[in-house]
Backbone:
């Protein structure tokens, strides 16, 4: 059976990863055969009775390194099953930091991925050189294994596959899609702990609500992620008007505080 998107995860803990990605939205998408996530136990591809996948590093040092051959045997099996060389990503702290743009690219450019989860002190460099197409990191920190980053990448990519979410607006309105953080969200009740939902959201005036949300997204991005704000294109007539309104409102607010 063919799926719109097929992800293979090479891991030492397939049950943990598989259970997580079979829940909620991604689980329902798999039930509808829109996507498929297969987890492969790397130990199943070792050539020794002990199912050993690691050994001491050449040159000495602490810990162990995942051996190239079990990884290669697993990787080869997946590619043979798919009938092609599948774009392969190693989840590594030395990789490029993953962003929404990468999720868009991976969903648009490929119909399948192999995600390789490392452990211990990492994996044999020779496997990376021969089989890995790119390395991805979640950020400037180190985890005990690649399973959490693999699940994050799989989730971020799969939710963009047509049909996984009910409407494209489910992700185009979210943080990072167009360089902005998402506007604040509210639900019932109208008043909670003496905090009210902004009146504009109760007005039913869709154009004014859209304008308010855009303004709030700009303010939130400016205040919380100045690095993102610096790269925003706010040159349109509508955005220039919003920026002017924001400046006037904040100036008036500061004046009220002084008084």
Residues:
């Amino acid at each position: 059976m063919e799926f719109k998107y097929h992800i293979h995860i090479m891991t030492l803990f397939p049950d943990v990863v598989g259970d997580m990605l079979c829940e909620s939205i991604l689980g329902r998408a798999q039930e509808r055969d829109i996507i498929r996530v297969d987890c492969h136990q790397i130990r199943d591809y070792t050539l020794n009775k002990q199912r050993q996948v690691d050994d001491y590093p050449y040159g000495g040092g602490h810990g162990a390194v995942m051996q190239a051959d079990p990884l290669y045997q697993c990787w080869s099996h997946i590619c043979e099953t798919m009938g092609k060389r599948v774009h392969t990503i190693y989840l590594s702290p030395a990789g490029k930091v993953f962003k929404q743009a990468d999720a868009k690219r991976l969903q648009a450019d490929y119909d399948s991925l192999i995600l390789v989860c490392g452990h211990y002190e990492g994996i044999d460099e020779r496997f990376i050189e021969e089989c890995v197409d790119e390395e991805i990191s979640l950020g400037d920190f180190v985890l005990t294994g690649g399973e959490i980053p693999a699940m994050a990448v799989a989730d971020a990519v799969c939710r963009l596959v047509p049909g996984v979410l009910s409407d494209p607006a489910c992700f185009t309105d979210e943080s990072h899609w167009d360089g902005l953080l998402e506007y604040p969200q509210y639900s019932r009740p109208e008043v909670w702990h003496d905090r009210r939902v902004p009146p504009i959201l109760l007005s039913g005036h869709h154009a004014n609500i859209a304008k308010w949300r855009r303004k709030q997204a700009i303010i939130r991005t400016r205040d919380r992620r100045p690095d993102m704000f610096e790269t925003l294109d706010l040159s349109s007539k509508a955005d220039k008007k919003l920026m002017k309104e924001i400046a006037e409102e904040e100036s008036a607010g500061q004046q009220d505080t002084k008084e």
